[in-house]
Amino acid sequence: MPRGVFITLEGLDGSGKTTQIKRLAAWLARRGQEPVLLRQPGSTATGDRIRQILLDSRSAAVAPMTEMALMFADRAQAIAEVIQPALDAGRIVVCDRFTDSTEAYQGGGRELGSKLVLDMHRLICGGLQPDLTLLLLPSFHVSLARARRRNDRVEAETGTSEGRFEQEKDAFHRRVWEKYREIAVREPDRVVLIEGDLSIGEVHEQIVEAVAERIVMAAQKA
User: Fold this and answer.
1) Which residues contact 30 (CB under 8 A, 6 or more apart)?
2) Which partner from 36, 90, 111, 209 sits 20 to 30 angstroms from 157, CA to CA?
3) How far apart are CA 166 and CA 156, in angstroms?
């Protein structure tokens, strides 16, 4: 059976990934290609527990190396439990964040550097790379303001908060944003950069164009 297609969406919180994943999933379903959806951290029982530690705003003083190690622990579980079995079964996998997020947030934001993250990726993930990464980069301040408003709303409604990273200073998020751009420049064959303050519909159009092209390429390789 031909291997499936592994697609990831990346960007700062507030970049619109959640909305675009829903629209992409609906588009794929209409084509008869119901995707396997997951997010990182999370989407497995182990990953959901790790997510609580990493994103809860009450998790204080988590060391950068601990943070990175937990991200990769979650990723290893997701690969073993969800991603690799789905790809082996020929499915399309759509994942909200993958190693690019760790490189951007821990490598860039926490200033651990890209080399350490990429070495960990090769060791823990066996070098598994997405076939296509859709990097959403609206303007820096727009993304950050959206994310902070969303977290405030969710906390008011539910009493829980996943805003630990949004509590960081703007300089942290600027380093994340810049690292994402660096990744896009370094890996243009894999990463499709969707930049600027576009409408939801405009972003979706660019996404489906890139995804359709990559699905065709995968079929030709099979």
Assistant:
1) none
2) 36
3) 16
Q: Which domain holds residue 17?
A: 5-221
DSSP 27-49: HHHHTT-PPEEEESS-SSHHHHH
CATH number at 87 reads: 3.40.50.300
The closest alpha carbon to 118, from 132, 103, 108, belongs to 103
The 10s digit of each residue's pLDDT in 146-205 is 766 766 665 566 656 666 887 888 899 999 999 999 999 999 999 999 998 899 999 999
Give this prediction's pTM.
Answer: 0.92
Strands across the sheet containing 191-195: 36-39, 92-96, 5-10, 132-137, 191-195
Total domain count for the chain?
1
Give the three-state DSSP class for 133: strand
Pair of tokens at residue 78 = 């997701």
Q: At residue 94, does pLDDT exceed 60?
A: yes
What is the rounded CA–CA span in Å between residue 85 and residue 106?
28
Q: What is the per-residue pLDDT across 183-198, written as a single tens digit (0 to 9) for each?
A: 999 999 999 999 988 9
Strand runs (DSSP E) across the chain, as ranges?
5-10, 36-39, 92-96, 132-137, 191-195
